[in-house]
Design goal:
Length: 290
């Protein structure tokens, strides 16, 4: 990793740490989800970075990929378990982190994923297999009496790619990938009192550009050029676009210009907690970015 990449990655991490400081006081019973999302995204810009993806706010059995639409009226309720997943980048160098906030009685479930991420980070260094991290994460979560979500993973981070190899599973896999010095990785355990799997549900506000091919209709071309200029290959929220009627977005998805990220929810309706940090793999350990 060169100096410039290192400096920008660390700065993106500093920005997220600063934003995260205010999250506990922003996420309150009766507060609107959209206000938290906009607070996070504006604060990232104010601090000199850009959002690497829309602020994800996943409540209760939702685990990932929910961000409110512009006119979303939903509010936090007493009893909620709220996951806030935030990303920032500087010139494409990304930091990614998530915390859980308890508006009910979920402290043990939250502790399970939080302890799991720090136990895994303690084991990170060049040469370690990601399967070992998965085993540590699973054992930690199970020691609290919960299950890891088996089909959500941590991941590598590359310039302008928010989900790069290697996948870091949250359970003990047969074999994994060897961590190399200089890799930037996000470790994100999810713990649940449900069965431990997520599936897509029918709501989608997050997309990314996968194939900026040329299209005939002018409005579609305008949408594509706005996305590629502002967000490149990073995920973006529908509410970030100047003008994007639903049917046009649907058309771009059908034509495989855009990829959609539907909300992922625990299949048995269990509560889900999440904790995530980004680290740089070093020869003798891990350097915490967030
Ligand atoms: Co992540």
């Amino acid at each position: 990793m060169d100096e410039d990449a290192l400096e920008k990655t660390l700065k993106a991490g500093e920005v997220l740490k600063e934003v995260a400081k205010s999250l506990e006081e922003k996420v309150t019973v009766g507060g609107k989800l959209i206000e938290v999302a906009e607070f996070v995204e504006n604060k990232i810009l104010e601090l000199g970075a850009k959002p690497a993806f829309p602020c994800n706010i996943s409540v209760n059995s939702d685990a990932a990929h929910f961000t409110p639409a512009k006119n979303d009226e939903r509010r936090f309720k007493k009893g909620d378990l709220v996951k806030i997943d935030i990303g920032a980048h500087i010139d494409g160098y990304i930091a990614d982190m998530a915390i859980s906030i308890d508006l009910g009685d979920h402290s043990e479930l939250i502790e399970a994923s939080k302890e799991a991420v720090f136990n895994a980070i303690d084991a990170v260094r060049a040469g370690v297999d990601t399967a070992k991290l998965g085993k540590i994460i699973e054992e930690t979560i199970r020691s609290h009496g919960f299950r890891p979500i088996v089909n959500l993973t941590g991941h590598g981070l590359l310039p302008y790619i928010a989900h790069a190899p290697p996948s870091i599973y949250n359970y003990a896999t047969q074999r994994g990938v060897e961590l190399k010095e200089g890799m930037v990785i996000a470790i994100e355990p999810f713990a649940t009192d449900g069965v431990g799997r997520v599936a897509e549900r029918n709501e989608c506000e997050i997309y990314s550009l996968i194939n900026p091919k040329s299209v005939r209709i002018k409005l579609l071309r305008d949408i594509i050029s706005e996305i590629s200029e502002k967000y490149k290959t990073l995920p973006f929220a529908k509410r970030w676009l100047t003008r994007a009627p639903e049917i046009f977005i649907a058309k771009l998805v059908r034509e495989k210009v855009l990829r959609e990220y539907p909300v992922l929810s625990e299949v048995s309706g269990g509560f889900v907690s999440q904790w995530e940090h980004t680290v740089i793999v070093e020869r003798e350990g891990a350097r915490l970015v967030t």
